[in-house]
Design brief:
144 residues, alpha+beta, Glycoprotein, Type 4 Pilin, 1 helix
Length: 144
């Protein structure tokens, strides 16, 4: 008969040690922080895509408005309610889009021109512009 080398007091149990469990929890924490960081940038890109689509919708509504008003654009986006929008268009963070009857360079002004702008979160910087009298960079659509 073979003699037991370990006394019963020192028998090996088949569970995990505290160190092993802490290491697994640390690895899971690191991986989850990486995933959360990637999700936040995806959300910013989605909000920027929505802003671009909103500006294109506003542009279409402005052109339709001008076609029915002898080529003149409204003084504010509120004038497009209720014929073209049910309520004032807001960006995904519930901020109003900027609208003006002045061209970005300031040379044209009046009811025959418009400019709509949105502040972007993660769009390519080459797509952003600044306007006269404003140091912020915006994604801008102007009348043709």
């Amino acid at each position: 008969m073979k003699k037991n080398v370990y006394p019963s007091k020192f028998k090996r149990s088949w569970g995990f040690t505290l160190i092993e469990l802490l290491m697994v929890i640390a690895v899971i924490g690191i991986l989850s922080s990486i995933v959360i960081a990637n999700l936040s940038s995806a959300r910013e890109k989605a909000r920027d895509a929505r802003r671009k689509e909103d500006l294109n919708s506003i542009r279409t509504a402005l052109e339709l408005y001008a076609n029915g008003n002898n080529g003149k654009y409204p003084d504010s986006l509120v004038s497009l309610i209720p014929d073209y929008f049910q309520s004032e268009p807001l960006d995904p963070l519930k901020q109003a889009y900027k609208y003006s009857n002045t061209s970005c360079d300031g040379t044209l002004t009046g009811p025959s021109v418009y400019r709509i702008m949105a502040k972007m979160e993660s769009v390519n910087p080459n797509e952003l512009k600044t306007c006269v009298g404003d140091s912020n960079k915006y994604y801008i659509l102007e009348s043709k």
